[in-house]
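User: Round two. Same drill as before: sequence, then structure, for each protein.

Assistant: Same drill it is. First protein:
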Amino acid sequence: MWSREVGLKQVEQGSRHPVENNSSISTGEGPLRLDLKRPSFKHGLFREQSGKSPGTERAIIVRSEVSQPTPTNSRKSAGMGTLPATPGKREDGSPTQALGQENGTTTWQDKLPASEREALELEGWGRLSETQVNVMRDSKRRAKEASDAALPRLRKRFAKLGFDEDQLNVLRHIAEKAPIVIHFNPDRRMGWFTNRTVLKAFLSDTHYRNKYETGVSGAWNRGRDQKERKLFGGLYHQSWGPPGWERPKYGALKGLPVGNTFFSIFGSCHFELQNDVRKRCTFGYGVTSDDLKQTPGTCEHFAHVLARCGKDQIRWLVAVSEKRSFAHWSEPHLAIEAQIHGPIQLKKDIREVRFRAFKPRKTQKRLQQLAEANGFAISSC
């Protein structure tokens, strides 16, 4: 079989036509070689599929059997499809979450004093990597400053809308109860050269994964990379940037436990996350890539995000927080983006999956299989 060495830069950018390079490349697991087989795009790399079709062969990246010493810092990133640094690999070759709570290995938190570990657990950050904890700490600090500054302005706005001080409890509703959802299209293909769908990928996986791991998203990699650099102060880009699994996943804050959100344009089905996941979420108004100057909020410090909502959205949120029955019928488009930091384990972090009733019965049956396999509820919306 024909093989050549390829440049690491082209590998990490997911290039479909890697540039040849005469030098050997070490990634800590041996050099990379180029083989001709039918590919599919997954986890930022080309991976082998069974079967061959004449005229459709393209280059994919596989690892040779040559072993080399693991470098002390093997993190490298070009902002797209990165190689996992610390994670191990499952039998199918896909990266694990590389956190002690997820795969039974030792984590950086195990080296901390017991008091610090307990503090992280109280914050809801016990399953985060060190980089993710730093992002959440910095985001919480900046969110508190922005929220405290916006609160007097928000009080005046509430007064103009006829609300009193007690109705600012809408902030408590958002902090404690408002559902967080992730929209997805179950029938979307995982790549150009495969019939494998997003739903099939869920059925064979243990986690919901971000676009750096799967190569599938409604946005393009470089735009998201720049967005995360600005929103989170470059903390996700220190030391050559993080492995793909460390980046946030994207969802939306939902006012009601039924119906859809503004972000349903990204998929007619959605996962509703468990309530404790909100402690490791940040929030922005609208699609945050449209306004990178805003400061992300947290569930505890949200006044500056709420202050950007329209008067109809504020009225509706107040009605929801007071459990008024008419709120069901007057839902405006609530466009609040959620960035979820840390793992989303299907068996642990998903409360329910909802789907549109018009979905094909085949899709509905597979969604039912997914719900039964992972122990969460399923319903139509």
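Second protein:
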Amino acid sequence: MIEILAAILVFIAVLRAARSAILMLAGIIAAGETLLISVASLRATQGLLFPKGQEQRSQTSKRLRRHEEE
């Protein structure tokens, strides 16, 4: 009888530990998602998403064309 009670208590402890681990993982995922959203919105408000990349690409292609012409 005592062994069964001990097994039940151990099972409950394992379930609580698993629940804590799942909640911790969910918190880490939520924090990472918030960080990604913050970085994306910051980059969008500063205008660093596409215009700067397109300018750099066009400058690079101009340099390549000049080099090919020479």
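Helices lie at 2-45, 51-69.

User: Perfect.
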